[in-house]
Amino acid sequence: MKIEQIYTGCLAQGAYYIESNGEVAIIDPLREVQPYIDKANADNATIKYIFETHFHADFVSGHVTLAQKTGAPIVFGPNATPEYDSIVATDGQVFQLGEITITCLHTPGHTMESSCYLLKDKTGKDYALFSGDTVFLGDVGRPDLAQKAAHMTQEELAGILFDSIRTKIMPLADDVIIYPAHGAGSACGKNLSKETVGTIGDQKATNYALRANMTREEFIAEVTDGLLPPPAYFPMNVKLNKEGYENVETIINNAKALSAKEFEIVANETNALILDVRNENDFAQGHIPNSIFIGIHGAFAPWVGALILDFKQPILLVTPEGKETETIKRLARVGYDATIGYLEGGIDAWKNSGFEIDTVNCISAETLEEKLKEEIAVFDVRKPGEFSAEHLNEAPSTPLDYLNEHLSEFPKDIEFYLFCAGGYRSMIAASILKARGYNNVINVNGGFAAIKKTGIKTSEFVCPSTLK
Q1: What is the pLDDT of residue 461?
Q2: What is the pLDDT of residue 227?
Q3: Of 47, 61, 233, 314, which cross-links 305 as Cys (Cβ 3.0–4.6 Å)?
């Protein structure tokens, strides 16, 4: 028996390759599926089943394409209503895979079709639980995503999740391995561990939501407390995962390599979004006017999903040379399939053709320290939790996630300064603001990490509800 976790850091997502005696099961595959096929071929094995733990919201799964390429059936848990051929399993249904078995455990609450898959070894012993978004390491799945589809409140869904965990997961032996669908960085939970593999026993001891004496009411209150609104792209990803989608290879083939002149013409004719995925420092030093920066080296796909609200708007790419196909794939992972072309030769081709370039003014944290002796406008675009932990008194919280809601707070008549933790997110914010006419924005290089190394005073935020 072989179990391989295939973890994708950008999405904080774990897919699984399971092989036994020449038969393979894939759980929650990414949209580009050739690597799974290659693995099976290397093992001289056949992909027999494709298991989906639920209709994912944070990425487009590869189940549809993988089924088309291999003929393997897609398996969902009870209550799933996919619009393509699949097996909708019953609770407790057993699937034979070589010398082992995989049992569907219906665990609704995150969504109503959410299911875990329990692997039993060839002796029949419970060995591993592929827990999807039901139980993570350190947390459980958020119960607010399926409210509309289930016609329930998040509190009602949280109550169902409590029952699922108590009746299906906590009775399992402590040595059963947990393989979750996500780790730290995913928006599918709020307190996920950086670890990606654990055990039932570890989670009973450390996961706040799996406390032995926790009441249903306590679970509902704690699981729903502090939930931030889900990213805007989640509903579209659910729709694609439920209804089906185009093969990512077709999307790649549809994107054209464009000379600088062709790029300019297509941009004007299509009103395409120009997305620059290079390093933030390279973007600052020179970029196509009105382009948006989201660097491919960071949490690229989630930020694309959070900030580009129109799935159908054509996209033109500016990438590091050789990263064109990778960028198109990573956009498609979160349902952005409208990439129509990329700048052949990268930004150098644009510059060498004599077209206008724009820059982002940047300063060091030490320069900011000097500036703060005067009355200046400075903004913190980190997440609310980061702001709460420590911040500058002079800088209000204007999280990148909700930048549109804070536009009126940024001045257009004076210079203002942006920072995040390290510089990646503040450059995203600066690019968006510049594209909207805020040409007086200045980025703080190195962000809060660099600021803390100066003499600038920082403060901790104390929530009034914690005061005694």
Answers
A1: 58
A2: 87
A3: 233
Chain centroid offset of residue 96 CA: 32
CATH number at residue 381: 3.40.250.10
Nearest CA to 8 among 32, 25, 24?
A: 32
Residue 190, pLDDT score? 80
Identify the H or E element spanning 223.
Answer: helix 216-224
From 185, 218, 236, give the residue that closes a domain: 236
The 10s digit of each residue's pLDDT in 302-324 is: 899 989 989 999 999 999 999 99
CA 297 distance to own-chain centroid: 14
Q: Do 156 and 95 belong together in one domain?
A: yes
The distance in angstroms from the start CA to the end CA of the chain is: 55
Q: Please tell me whether residues 307 and 173 are part of one structural domain.
A: no
| Listed residues 303, 325, 352: the one ending a domain | 352
Domain of 271, in residue numbers: 246-352
Rounded to whole angstroms, the Cα distance separating 139 from 207 reads 6
In DSSP notation, 38-95 reads HHHHHTT-EEEEEE-SS--SSS--SHHHHHHHH-PPEEE-TT---SSS-EEPPTT-EE
Splitting the chain (468 residues) into consecutive groups of 10 residues, what average pLDDT does each group show? 95 96 98 97 98 97 98 98 98 98 98 98 98 97 92 96 98 98 88 92 97 96 90 93 96 97 97 97 97 95 90 96 96 97 97 96 97 95 93 95 92 96 98 96 97 91 40
CA–CA distance from 295 to each of 247, 301, 311, 397, 404 (Å)? Answer: 25, 10, 19, 22, 20
Token readout for 448 is: 């809060």
Query: Quick check: 284 and 358 in contact, CB under 8 A?
Result: no
Per the domain annotation, does 368 fall within a domain?
yes
Q: Do the domain assignments include residue 404? A: yes
Please state, as a whole number, how many other Cβ atoms lie within 10 Å of the Cβ of residue 342.
Answer: 24
Residues 211 and 250 in one domain: no
Angle at 200 between CA 196 and CA 206, to 5 degrees: 75
Q: What pLDDT shows up at residue 460? A: 74
Contact, 108 vs 140, CB < 8 A? no
Considering the domain boundaries, does residue 241 fall inside one? no
Identify the CATH number of the domain in which residue 182 sits. Answer: 3.60.15.10
Contacts of 108 (CB under 8 A, 6+ apart): 79, 114, 160, 161, 164
At 468, list the tokens. 């005694």
Strand partners, 140: 135
pLDDT of 459 reads 87
In the prediction, which pLDDT does 467 show? Answer: 31
